[in-house]
Amino acid sequence: MSSELRYTANTQLEHLHARYTGTGHADLTKYDWLTHQHRDTLSSIVGHPTLTAYLAIADGACTGRVKYEMTEKMLQPCGPPPRKDDD
């Protein structure tokens, strides 16, 4: 019985990972996860004109400037990646 539950849980998890790429995996670091979250948020803001207009009004800038700044932030939203220790 428990092996069937484990198999079902694993197949459901694999299906979830295949369908939604941002769900991560076991080897995903905190930095990578945060980077994905920030990029998803920024792309959502750029993709929805009402959110872009809202931020433009709040910042006192034009919507083109807000889109440009959000797109530039997508390159490294959390700063440079941390150094990896090769021990």
From TrEMBL:
Pfam families: SF3b10 (PF07189). GO terms for biological process: mRNA splicing, via spliceosome. GO terms for cellular component: precatalytic spliceosome; U2 snRNP. InterPro entries: SF3b5/RDS3-10, Splicing_factor_3B_subunit_5. It comes from the Eukaryota. Belongs to the SF3B5 family. This is Splicing factor subunit. The lineage of its organism: Eukaryota, Fungi, Dikarya, Basidiomycota, Agaricomycotina.
